[in-house]
């Protein structure tokens, strides 16, 4: 899926604003539980705990199996906790090369997207042009297109352009697919930088690009970080695009090589599969926490993308 | 809560004041920074879309003479599509997958979680929302492995069922669609939950309060007050989850591979298999074109519903 939004409220540890106070009382009312109806509150908590258990079981398997010397497909407390699974997969060809490829792919996509998006966002945010509206509609339309549906034509197009199995080609394609969303986000972050600061610079004869570089960009640094990380996370987790476009194993990112590993050893070495999954997932989990902090602090990402 | 927050029209000034040159030249100069974005979008988004329409009228293959020199075969691929029993089946499975996992599953569970969170204890809320969001943030292939292990014949679900004395079926073979639908609900509910939490938080408490004073019970307040107030978020979220679910590939591909047979082959899987497994790139492209058109129709409906906010 294209993970679209990181709404600012309701990221873990950052409860939605305007939350109902815990105690009973008129302000404590919520849409379902009436104030003072203890039974409803208890019920709500019980239901949430049950849902939480359903959600934790598949997740827990990855964590527990990665530490288990004799892992199976069942969530189980390891009888013997071991890091052998990790040391078994932490070899250059198994982990480090694919992770490096994934980093190159994601960082490259993030950079290309960020530069193109910021440049495009500046005129869209600062000038009122007849061009803006149709362009923004087109971009919005591009946000919605099912990218998966495009992979077969993209493959044959890449064969024609001689871009198959090329890391730069894949980066450019992934940048193009994440660009519509990035332009929207960058434009919204830029809209929140007051235009009055630039007017002074314009009066002093600075060009639009100078004002962008000297005044706007430093003021929207957290926003830039959010856009970059957002694109990075998506590219890091993307399986289908590199799976179709990158063919030689030494170029493939972790998402693809982990699938090959699963195909070869997945039915026996569950512990190693889980350990590899952990190593591959941890960077995006850490980045997500970072982006939640950033967007929660000074910028509400909910303004950029939301339902 | 508004969607894709609009720029305050008119709030932005006229930009750097240049001496009055020709109006045309000035606005052309202002478009220059848009060039990299436009080139990228034209080459790698518009290009494949056009190529998709073109390629669907050829007999392009993966290897052999038809790979180098595909021939124009007109509507043959589409005729074949209509007579291929796999296609209507895949279309139906896609509709089932989208309706059950996105429209019903993710939306109802997401809204339910958002509402329940409001009356939950703080630690419960924090832990449960972290778990739900983690399933969504994980790379899709890892989420697919986790779901595979959960639904596998020797997996967690069956060992839990065995614990209460039920011999569970081999979910991935006997009920593949049920397994992938549940897995997609598990994977994607976080998005709806976050959208609805933000929306519900913006419902003015006075309104629900007034309804409560008038004697409306919890269910009545939800149906008559909260839902109408957040209807815009609901329609936006329905569209976005539909479009995302329409293009789910990895989850199904890893869990069932579209099988057994074609029993969980949705359109993305079918397009991939026809193009790369059976080497019929032209035919696969025709399936891709059908999906693009379906996605485009949904997008247009979605954008029309947002129109007042972009303008």
Describe the structure.
The complex is a heterodimer of chains A (307) and B (311). With 307 residues, chain A is mostly helical. Chain A has a single domain (87-303), classed as MetI-like (MetI-like fold, Orthogonal Bundle), CATH 1.10.3720. Helix content of chain A is 67%, strand content 0%. Chain A has helices at residues 38-66, 84-89, 92-126, 132-144, 147-161, 167-191, 196-203, 208-219, 221-237, 240-245, 254-265, 270-297. The longest helix of chain A has 35 residues, at 92-126. The radius of gyration of chain A is 23 Å and the shape is globular. The model of chain A is unreliable at 1-35 and 297-307 (pLDDT under 50). In chain B, helix 6 (122-137) crosses helix 10 (176-201).
The averaged pLDDT of chain B comes out at 83
Could you describe the largest sheet of chain B, including whether it forms a barrel?
none
> Superfamily at the CATH H level of chain A?
MetI-like
* Average pLDDT over all residues of chain A: 79
Secondary-structure-based class of chain A equals mainly alpha
Gyration radius of chain B, rounded: 24 Å
CATH fold title of chain A = MetI-like fold
- Give the helix proportion of chain A (percent range): 55-70%
The residue fraction in helices of chain B comes out at: over 70%
Number of strands of chain A: 0
> What does the overall shape of chain B look like?
globular
- N-to-C CA distance of chain B: 17 Å
């Amino acid at each position: 899926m294209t993970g679209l939004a990181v709404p600012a409220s309701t990221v873990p540890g950052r409860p939605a604003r305007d939350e109902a106070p815990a105690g009973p009382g008129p302000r404590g009312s919520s849409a379902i539980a009436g104030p003072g109806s203890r039974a409803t509150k208890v019920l709500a908590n019980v239901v949430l705990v049950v849902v939480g258990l359903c959600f934790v079981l598949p997740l827990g398997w990855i964590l527990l199996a990665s530490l288990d010397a004799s892992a199976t497909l069942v969530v189980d407390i390891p009888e013997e906790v071991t890091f052998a699974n990790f040391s078994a997969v932490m070899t250059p060809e198994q982990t480090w090369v694919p992770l490096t490829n994934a980093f190159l792919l994601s960082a490259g996509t993030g950079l290309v997207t960020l530069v193109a998006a910021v440049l495009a966002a500046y005129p869209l945010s600062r000038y009122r042009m007849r061009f803006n509206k149709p362009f923004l509609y087109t971009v919005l339309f591009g946000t919605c297109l099912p990218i998966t549906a495009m992979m077969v034509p993209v493959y044959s197009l890449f064969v024609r352009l001689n871009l198959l199995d090329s890391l730069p080609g894949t980066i450019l394609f992934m940048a193009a697919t994440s660009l519509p969303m990035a332009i929207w986000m960058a434009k919204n972050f830029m809209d929140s930088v007051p235009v009055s600061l630039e007017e002074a610079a314009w009066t002093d004869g600075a060009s639009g690009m100078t004002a962008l570089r000297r005044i706007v960009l430093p003021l929207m640094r957290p926003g830039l970080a959010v856009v970059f990380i957002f694109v990075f996370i998506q590219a890091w987790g993307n399986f289908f695009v590199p799976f179709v476009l990158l063919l030689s194993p030494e170029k493939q990112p972790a998402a693809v090589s982990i699938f090959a590993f699963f195909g070869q050893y997945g039915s026996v070495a569950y512990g190693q599969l889980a350990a590899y999954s952990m190593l591959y997932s941890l960077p995006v989990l850490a980045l997500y926490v970072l982006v939640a902090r950033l967007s929660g602090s000074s910028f509400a990402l909910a303004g950029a993308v939301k339902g | 809560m508004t969607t894709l927050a609009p720029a305050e029209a008119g709030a932005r000034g006229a930009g750097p004041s240049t001496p009055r040159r020709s109006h045309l030249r000035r606005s052309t100069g202002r478009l220059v920074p848009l060039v990299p974005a436009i080139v990228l979008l034209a080459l790698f988004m518009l290009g494949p879309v056009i190529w998709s329409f073109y390629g669907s009228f050829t007999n392009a293959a993966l290897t052999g003479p038809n790979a180098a020199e595909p021939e124009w075969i007109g509507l043959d691929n589409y005729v074949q599509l209509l007579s291929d029993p796999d296609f209507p089946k895949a279309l139906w499975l896609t509709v089932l997958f989208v309706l059950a996992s996105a429209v019903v599953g993710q939306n109802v569970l997401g809204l339910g979680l958002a509402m329940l969170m409001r009356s939950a204890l703080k630690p419960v809320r924090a832990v449960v929302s972290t778990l739900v969001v983690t399933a969504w943030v994980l790379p899709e292939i890892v989420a697919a492995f986790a779901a595979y292990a959960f639904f596998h014949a020797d997996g967690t679900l069956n060992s839990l069922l065995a614990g209460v004395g039920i011999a569970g079926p081999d979910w991935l073979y006997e009920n593949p669609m049920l397994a992938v639908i549940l897995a997609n609900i598990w994977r994607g509910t976080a998005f709806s939950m976050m959208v609805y939490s933000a929306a519900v938080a913006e419902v003015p408490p006075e309104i629900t309060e007034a309804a409560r004073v008038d004697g409306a019970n919890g269910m009545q307040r939800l149906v008559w007050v909260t839902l109408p107030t957040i209807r815009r978020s609901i329609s936006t979220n329905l569209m976005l989850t539909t479009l995302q679910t329409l293009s789910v590939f990895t989850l199904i591909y890893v869990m069932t591979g579209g099988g057994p047979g074609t029993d969980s082959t949705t359109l993305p899987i079918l397009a991939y298999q026809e193009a790369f497994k059976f080497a019929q790139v032209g035919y696969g492209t025709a399936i891709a074109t059908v999906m693009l058109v379906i996605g485009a129709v949904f997008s247009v409906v979605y954008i029309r519903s947002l129109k007042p906010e972009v303008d």
